[in-house]
Structures are given as C-alpha cells and as structure tokens.
Amino acid sequence: MKRSTLIYVAFPLLFIFSYCSKKTNPGKQTSTSVYGNETSPKPVVKKAVKTPVPKVIVVNDVAAKKTFDGRLYYDLEGRRYWKNYKDGKYYLFNKSMTTNPDFKKP
Questions:
Q1: For the whole model, what pTM was predicted?
Q2: Which of 24, 91, 92, 105 is most buried, by CB atoms within 10 Å?
Q3: What is the mean pLDDT of each run of 10 residues along the chain (106 residues)?
C-alpha cells in the first residue's frame, strides 16, 4: 500500500517540479542554409522621392476659390496658395501674408 502511494504522489510531484524548474530561453532565431549557418539578408527599403514644393505658382482666377472676405486662394497637393494682387501670382502661405497689403483684396 505504501509503495502505490509513493508512486501516485512522488512521481507526479517529481515530474511537475522538474518541468517547472526548466529555464528555457528560445534565443535568437536565424535562418540556416544548406551551406552552413547564415542569416538572411534584410530587405532593401527604398526612400520615397519627395517632389520639391514650389513657392510661387500661376493659376487662372477662374480655377481659384474665394474666401468670405473675397480673397482668392488655390489648393495644390494639400498646400494653400494665396493670390498676390500686386503681381497676380499665387504664393505659398506664410505668416507675413496676414499683414502684407499686397495679399488683401483692393
């Protein structure tokens, strides 16, 4: 009777402690080839070519839109250009336009 108790209690405890006390670390995984242990090359990432943003554009006034105060603007590729009434060209927005009288409708 004692021997069967020992088998039913001791072996499962021994199995649980031996299994739980293992310190496993998967480590770094590398790809292997037929010729030896080689790492796979990283894919080449091409940088996107950014097109330069023009500071000045010429637009027909029919294509431009008006604001509530009558000034003309044109949106091109997510950037807003405002009309300079002195020379008739559209300039990329900057803070100095708010005080410059050339960008206000006469």
A1: 0.54
A2: 91
A3: 68 68 58 58 86 92 92 92 94 90 86
